[in-house]
Amino acid sequence: MQETRTCQNCKSEFVIEPDDFMFYGKMQIPAPTFCPECRYARRLMIRNERNFYKRTCGLCKKPMISMYASEKPFPVFCSGCWWSDGWDPMMQGRGFDFSRPFFEQFKELRNSVPRPNLINPNTKNSDYCNYTADVKNCYLCFGSIETEDCLYGCPYESKFCVDTYLARECEYCYECIDCEKLSNCLHCQECASSLNLLCCYDCKNCQDCIGCSGLRNKQYCIFNQPCSKEEFLKEKEQIFEGGFEHLQNVADQFQKIKHGMPHRFATTLQCTGVSGDHIVQSKNARSCFDVKRTEDSRYCIRLIDAKDAYDSNYCEYLELCCDYLGFWKVQRTKFSNTCGEGSDLTYCDFCSGSSNVFGCVGLRGKQYCVLNKQYTKEEYEVLVKKIIAQMNEIPFVGNNGRVYCYGEYFPAEISPLAYNESVAHDFFPLTREEVLKKGFAWRDPEERTYTVTKEAIDLPLKIREVQDSILQEVIGCEHKGSCNHQCTVAFKIVPAELEFYRRMNIPLPRFCPNCRHYARLALRTPFKLWKRTCQCVGQKSENGVYQNTASHQHGAGKCLNEFETSYSLDRPEIVYCESCYQAEVV
Question: Which residues of the chain have pLDDT under 50?
Fold first, then answer.
């Protein structure tokens, strides 16, 4: 039976469908009281990727970089100490107090148990990275796996890439978004299996193209027009010799080409019964984004090898999980954060190799624990049932009337982070006033002690004019802190970065890494779906900008195909259904 509810956070209506109720019944949890978007934001409020602080390890007392500022109430250990046997999280165990809300007691436990400074297993020479694994010689990379010599962004299985977002199996790429198997490409999006592209969108198996969109198996094209090899090389040389201004002109012209070509309503590959965007080799994955090999799941983002998962993010190899954030190899886990190689985890935080634990923090290899206290199997099962009942009888009441019973994720009110420290601010940016009005915490930026020695406007326009002395300069970001993008106001160029720019013959950036990150996010569609109809009206697009080049199945009249897409109605792109898109682009 379908049911429409009102989100207790944003007050908008959302629908719970029969399949959803079946899943919640399988997980033995109540249906949600927050809408999908608010549930996603709530999970992200406890994850910090990009904000770093200098502090001292609480165990070995050595200086370290941490995702937690020094004023946080809980201890923070460096990774070596946190994973060592030098401390025991069970020492903070405590009995459950049935006269107080569960989340109050969980917060007290969490504030007493040490947390890891960063999440970087098996990394080398990559101190300024977070939530990465198997990376080497990387700097300011986040959420990356198996990467080498990459800077700024979240590449996967890539080498020598700078300022990327979800670039997979790429090398020598710059400012590339949602791309795979690229080499020597700059400012590309939705491109694959290509070489030597500049400012291209949705180009596959192409080589030596500039300012192109929607091409397949092409070489030597400029703004979607074919040219000779000699003409191409001459134009390319003029662009790069012209430096920053010429590249900017190409980018401006490219936007007209990009918006003048049909866009596929969703990017999917080898999928059945899916909705969302960037879905690969998946089945029955609805309202999912950036997932691969995912089945029978809904409201999931950034997953690989998942089955029967709802409201889960940043994980590989999971099954029967709900409202879960981060890491890998978990089963039957709900309302938890960054747990690995475990099962039957409920309201757990940074627990690994454990099973059948409830409301625990930092455990390793444990079973039948509640609030980090050990019980027998029989005691555990009885106690958990009583706690679940008590959570409904004495709920945690947060700000703005939000009520948290059993079945709600960790309340934003007990997050270890301020809103603007968390990933939530990346995808749902708010001003300080908006954050406080919603009842969330805000952290004012630390006062900067450095002095800008060179403004962005004074940077050389061509990379060959840049001297090594630039490495000593403090460059002022063009935004000067006026944006809502966590602007650092100033930034520096690191040696590996300068070497990359010189090799690729591209000018220095004018914005700080955070502002560049937010600019990349703005180029993507949001994690949200709208119902739309195909914009093909027979001989051309609905807005008259694009003239069709082939006959379509629906004939000369308007295409009546409907779909769900992450392109909202107010966006400038021309959105075609699968059939019309394939007729024009492939």
Answer: none
